[in-house]
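Quick one: examine this chain and its C-alpha cells and tell me how the chain folds. Here goes:
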Amino acid sequence: MNKFNPKDFEDKWRKKWATEETYKTPEIKKGDEKFYSLYSYPYPSGAGLHVGHVEGMVANDIPARYNRMLGKKVMMPMGWDSFGLPAENYAIKTGIHPKDNTDEAIKAFIEQINNIGISVDWNTEVGAHYENYYKWTQWIFIQLFNAGLAYKKKAPVNWCPKDQTVLANEQVESDGTCERCGTEVEQKDLEQWFFKITDFADRLVDDLDKVDWPDSTKAQQRDWIGRSIGAEILWKLNNPDYKNKKENQKYIVELANTDDAEEISFIRVSGWLENNINEKTGVTKEFLGEFHDQKIPISKDKIQKQSNYIKENPESNLIIRENGKILGWLGLMFEEDNVISFGVYVHPDHRGRGVGSALMNYVFEKNPSHKFKIEVSKNNTRAIELYKRQGFEEVGESKWFIEGREENFIPLYVMEKECFVIHTFTTRFDTIPGPTFLVIAPEYEHLDKIVTAENKDAVSKYIDSIKNKTDLDRQTAKEKTGVFTGSYAVNPFNNEEIPIYVADYVLANYGTGAVMGMPGHDQRDYDFAKKFDLPIKYTLQPKDEGFEFPKDKAFEGEGYQINSGEFNGLWWEEAKDKIMDKLISEDKAIKKVNYRLRDWLLSRQRYWGCPIPVIYDPEGNAHAVPEEDLPVLLPYNVDFSPTGESPLAKSEEFQKSAEEKYGKGWRREVDTMDTFVDSSWYFFRHVDAKNDEKIFDSEKVNAWLPTDLYMIGAEHIVLHLMYSRFFTKFFFDQGLIDFDEPFYRMRHMGLILGPDGRKMSKRWGNVINPNDEIDKYGADTLRIYEMFMGPLIDAKPWNDSAEKGVLRFLSKVWDNFNRIQTTDSREEVKFEIRNSKFEIQEREINKLIKYVGPAIDTLSFNTAVAKMMEFNNFLTKEKEINKSVFERFMLVLAPFAPYVTEEIWSQMGNEFSIHNAKWPEFDESLTKESSVTIAIQINGKVRGTVEVDAGSNEDVVYSAAMKEQNIAKYVENEPKKKIYIQDRILNIIV
C-alpha cells in the first residue's frame, strides 16, 4: 500500500487543470444561475503571499468550487493592486525599477496561487499597472471630470517629509507618524485633485440596507460618513472693530404685485436655499442668444462655500437672463454701455459665501453708474427692510415676479452685507440655553472678520504653533489649547453674549468649522472651559433627590431642562424638538443634515501610480485629455527620488509629449492617482478583462454582478468599500450598469497570528511562510488547516501541532481509500439500504452531505472540517467501506482538498474531473437517527435512560421505561402526569 505523499500528484493535477482550463469562466446571460466569488486583489509584494492571503483565497475558493458542483456558472478571478508607494520606496532603496520588481513579484504570486490550488480563471486577470487597465482608470476620471465630480483646489494635507508624499488620515498613526516609515507627519497646503463623493453621502448610507454585510462593517461605514440630522444655529457676531458700511451706489427695488412670492423671495434674500432640481444644467457661451428654458439648480452646500475662482474671473460667470432667454454675459453689457441690469445670475458652479460682494465690487469698478433691478413681493416686509438697509431704492410696483429657484446674486450681496453670522451645527437643541463660549477652527474661512485688531497677533502666533499638527493630533490631544479672538457671539435663544475662541480641536473641514462650547454637558468643552476659566452652565439634570453635578467633569447623562426659560421641566428629548422648532420659526436656525464624510483627495506626489489624465493650456486652465488619446502612459525612465515635487514633473519625455500633441505651452498634470482609485473598480473589469474597445461590456457585467461573495481583510472595510460603492453608483447614474451596489455579500477574515499569539512580523521572528508549509505537508493540509483554525472572522494563533493533525486526517483518508481498493465485499452504487451491512455508512454519509453544504454557504468551514474528520474516523473503524459512500465523501471533501480528492477520484475510475462533478444529494429520511436514547426523569430528576426507535410516541417510551427496574421502582402508582419531549426526555410526575 502506497503511503500518502502529496508531492506524488499535486504538480500533475496543477498542470492538467491549466491545460484543460478546468476553471474557465463560462459564457453567461442575465438570469443564469451564477456565483461570482471575489477576493480583494492583493498587493504583489516581493515577499510573496502570506498565510493571511491563503486564508482569504481558500475561503473564496471553497464556495466557488461548491457552487460549480451545484451546476451554477462560476467566476473566480484574480488581479493585482500593483501600483503604490511600497514598490516606489523599494526602487529608491535598491535601484530596481518598480515595474520590473512588480512584474517579477506577480509571477511569484501566480505560482503560489496555483500551488495552493485556487480555482482561478487566469483569463480574468487584471493589474493596476497594466496599460490596458489604467487606460480605463483614466477614462473613469474623465467621466467624473465631465460630470463635475472631479475638481482641483488647494487643501491642507498630511505630508510625509521622508516619503515626500501626501498621506490620507488613515495612513497616519495615532502618534502623528507615517504608518510606513515612522516619520513625523507635517501639514502642508497643496493644490490637489478631489472626487465629489460627498454628493453621494445619503445614498452611501441608505443603501447599506440592501447588502448582506456584517453589522459591524455597516456601522463603521455609517460612522465614517457621519450623517447627523439637526440644524445650524445662527450666531450674530459682535466684533468691536466691525462697522456695517453701506455702499454709495444706488440700486433699484421693484415690488412684485404677487401674493405667493413672499416665501420664495425671503428664502432667496436669506440665502437658505433648497435644491429641488436634480439636473446639472451648466450654461456655456454656445447658448448665448438661444432659448434656454431649464432652471439653473442650486446646491445647498455651495451657498456656504467660498469660491475664489469667481472672484478672480467674475466676468465669465455672470449671466444675463430674461424669461428663459440668455441675453449675454455681463461683460458684454458694459461694452454696450447699459446702465441697468435686470436678472443677473451666478453660474451654478461658483455660488458661495462672499460671491455677491465680489461681483458687486467688480460691477462698480467697471461702471460706477451701473444700476441693478430686483423684484420683491410687496408683502415681504422683512426682505424689503433688508434691501433698504443696504441702500436699495424703491421705485414702485412691477407686474410680474422673477421665479425664485434661480439665484439672482443681489440677494447674496444683501445677505453678506446685512450681518455676519456664524453657523454652528447641532443635534442637541436641549443644550442651546447653556453654551458659555464659541470655538472656531484655526482655518475658519472668515476668521479675519472675527479677530479684533487687538488680538490679531496672539491669534496669528497660536495658528503658527499648531500648523504642523495633523487632524488626528488635534482631536485626540488631552490638553486643550486655544486663544481669545476679542469678539463675542450672540446666543439666538436668550441673546446672551459669549466669547469666541480659536482652538485646534475644531476642524474647518467638518461641519461649519465652528462649535458651541457646552462645558456642563460635554467633556471636551468642560476641559476647555477649565483651562480658560470660563463659566460652566447646566441645562438639564435628573430629578433624583439630592442630585449634585460632578465637581471634576461634565454631566453627560439625561435629565429634565433647567436654566431654559419656558422649556424648564421638560424631558430633554421633548425640549430638544421644541427648542429647535422655535428657533427655526424665528429664522434663528436652519434645518440641516451634516456629514463627517469629506471629498476624496486622490492626488499623490509619487511616480508609481496611474497618471491623472489632465492637461493644462498655456493660461493654466485644466482640460480632460481627449478619450482617443488614452492611455496617458507612465514613462519608464523617470528619476523618482524624493524631492518634494511629483517625479513626473522632472520627466522631459512626459511633458514633451503634451506639447507635441497639443501645442506649445501645454503641459500635463504631474500627480498620480491614489491607489484606492485603481481598486475601486477592478471587479467590473474582471468580467471583460481583454476588452480594448470599452471599459466593459454592460450586458456581461449586469449578468455577473453584484458579486455573490466578496472576501476582504478587515483593514479594507471602510474606505475601499466606500470608494467602490461610490464608483458603482456613478456607473449606475451614467447608465453603464443596472445595479448600484457592487458587493451583495461581503465578509472579512480575522488575522492569523504567529505561534506566540502576536501579529506576524519579521521583528518578532514569528512569520509563517505558506511555501514552507506546502513543502512540508502539501497544499491540501495548508488549506484545510487554515479553515479549521476557528471561525473565519476571528483572530487565530498558528499552531503547528494542529496543522500536523490535519495531515494525519488526510493520511487516514488516503488509507481508507486504499482499503476500498483491497476489500472483497463491494456493493453497487444502488442497493437496498435497510438491513444491509452498509446501512450505517449510508446514513452517516447522508448526514454529512446535509451538513457540509449549508456550512459552506454560511462560511462555517471549521465546523464542516470537524464533521468530515468525524466521518473519516467512523469509516476507519468500519471493517469494510462501501465505494459509493466513499465517492460521495470525496465529492464533499473536494472543495476543501482539491488535490487529494482529484487523485482518489481518478484512481477510482472516473475519467472527468471531480471538480466538474455534481454535488451529491442526500435522502432526508436517511439523515434521521434509527434509534434514540431518551432520558427518563422522575419528578424532574434523571433516574435512567431507555433506547427506542426514533419517532416513538409517549406510550412506547413509558412502556420501555417501566421495564427498567431502576426506573420502575420509583413509580408505585399511576403517575399524576407525564411530560414528553419528542426523542429527548420523558418526565414522570408521581
Observations:
- The two ends are 62 Å apart (CA to CA).
- The mean pLDDT is 83.
